[in-house]
Design a protein that fits this description.
Blueprint lengths: L6 E9 L8 E6 L7 H11 L3 E6 L6 E6 L4 E2 L3 H13 L9 E8 L2 E9 L5 E6 L4 E5 L2 H8 L13 E4 L3 E6 L3 H6 L4 H11 L3 E6 L9 E7 L4 E4 L3 H13 L7 E6 L7 E10 L2 E20 L1
Helix pairs in contact: 3-5
Length: 300
């Protein structure tokens, strides 16, 4: 009987925005005890958001959090962290009575801290510390140009295309302008093949040009192999991008804001903080706000 089947509370939360139906939607199950990995994957596939987060008890941190795309589990994710910590604060499981709190989350990449603050307008701002940046394999410019439907000359030639990780491996693809970002027509099959051969999660394509001159960059993200044709606003890849920009001397500011999602009709903003030792970025933090769109139950 349907009534005897377990139900779980689930929310859809838009991250990196204070406006509903913008930013990046995320499924959040804040009490996921009893769910198997296969059930979590099935729920993520059913919700069909870029990612769904599941909160569990942890023996080593305040919360254990697992992240699933519609196709697979991933080790670290940015916008689901923003959405999850916002939701836990909204439910009273993170105490913001003093205006701020610091918690830890156990992820598949280890235990990382998160700071949650209530701003002057009442918005909850979540600051996520990511894993130490790693600079991995180099990638072929011409192959990415073909897969993105642009010319090889549209991709910057003064810096390498490279896989960078601050917890999740991402391909960094710097293009010459905002106009190039608008001309992208991705071939998802080719992008998926590049993900497999390059051993990265998605392609983060960005320009040091923004619609709002107060911001420093604009990005688009494609993760075909994870079942995400275009991710509206990508926190994990923004962290990797920030590390990349610092290492190669393209942008060496300790704090700035990045735009993403406008080409997908879901504009969002990601705040970035970078700590570095000379040319080497050693810690990246990304921050943003969120808003709840839907709350209900799902039957397993």
């Amino acid at each position: 009987m349907l009534g005897s089947m377990p139900n779980y509370q689930v929310k859809i939360v838009d991250a990196f925005t204070t406006r509903r139906y913008a930013g990046n939607p995320c499924g959040v199950v804040t009490r996921a005890e009893g769910l198997t990995g296969d059930q979590m994957q099935a729920i993520a596939r059913e919700l069909n958001a870029s990612e769904t987060a599941f909160v569990l008890p942890s023996a080593v941190a305040d919360f254990r959090v697992r992240f699933f795309t519609p196709a697979k589990e991933i080790p670290l994710a940015g916008h689901p962290t923003i959405a999850t910590m916002f939701t836990l604060a909204d439910e009273g499981r993170i105490d913001l009575s003093r205006g701020a709190a610091r918690v830890t989350q156990e992820l598949n990449v280890g235990v990382l801290p998160v700071e949650i603050l209530r701003g002057p307008e009442g918005h909850v701002r979540v600051v996520m510390t990511q894993a130490r940046p790693e600079f991995l394999g180099l990638l072929e410019r011409a192959a990415f140009a073909r897969a993105l439907g642009i010319e090889a000359g549209d991709i910057r030639g003064d810096v390498p295309l490279q896989v960078v990780s601050t917890g999740t491996h991402q391909a960094m693809v710097p293009v010459r302008s905002l106009g190039v970002l608008g001309r992208i027509r991705p071939n998802l099959q080719q992008l998926g093949e590049l993900e497999q051969s390059g051993q990265f999660f998605g392609a983060h394509v960005f320009a040091l040009e923004a619609r709002d001159p107060a911001n420093r960059a604009h990005a688009r993200h494609f993760a075909a192999g994870a079942g995400i044709p275009e991710d509206p606003v990508t926190g994990s890849a923004t962290g990797g991008m920030a590390a990349y920009l610092w290492k190669y001397g393209l942008l060496r500011e300790s704090r700035y804001t990045v735009e993403q999602g406008h080409f997908a009709g879901r504009p969002g903003l990601v705040d970035v903080e970078v700590d570095a030792e000379g040319d080497e970025p050693v810690e990246v933090r990304i921050a943003g706000t969120a808003v709840t769109v839907l709350a209900g139950t799902i039957t397993v």
